[in-house]
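Checklist before submission:
- one chain only
- standard amino acids only
- sequence pasted in full

Submission:
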Amino acid sequence: MKKKLASLLLAAAMALTMTAFPVFAAGEEVQDSSTAITEGSALCEHHPSHDAACGYTEGTAEIPCTHEHDGDCYTLVTECVHEHTAECYPAESVSENTATPSQPEEAEPTACTHVCTEESGCITKALDCKHEHDEACGYVPATGGTPCTFACEVCNPQDSGDTATPSDAQPEECTCETLCTEDNINEDCPVCGAEDAEPTDCKGLEALPATLSNALPVTALAAEGVPSQLYVGNKQVISYTETTYWTTDTDGNLTQTAADQSWNVKYDPATVALTLRGATIQGGTNTGPA
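Returned file contents:
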């Protein structure tokens, strides 16, 4: 049993001596290379790989210093570990009873012959390496890299609050009836009212295709009085009690809709105003009574 235990201890000692340990200069900080590389981010089907515009750079792992400590890297430190014994005190002091066991501090160890040496353990070497990294030691610090700054407006539309928006999501469309200015921004528009939006983002009516309705004034007011009939594309749009809203199809047919829906034609009896917004109008002129 003793021989078996000794064999196991010997095998363990040999295994430890075969393990490689890196050597670093004094004061050197060791960085975990697993945290030195910045992972890629913001990749999607619209940004499949990083480029110069997104600013992404991959970090690099640290290359350790190969400097090995030599005699110049150590300094001698003296710290006496000797404890005085009876031989360190003069014999007459004991015979004359100048120092008793109750008063040992009054005796002086004038007969002590101890000399501090490395063999006695009083002088030791302390590491005091002055090495500075250079080309010879090969040390290269780790770099953290820089993250990707690409922000996909399709995969992550503004104000969605959902980073998991499907990649086929459609961008927001401008719903402004008139173009926004710096002093007059439509906060209800998903484009113009978004954070950091610019007035130039506004599409308004000026961005609509050139049709007959766009060639007309945006709002047409009756010359005088309130008309009893008003046809748009052969559809009577007048109401005397509430504002009416209509949509037009490609054939110029009107369908009444709600105020909060998308519309092309609006009639407001309070202001006797007819508003056309991207409307397609076809049909003859109605000459019924005013």
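Reviewer check: The longest helix spans residues 2-17.
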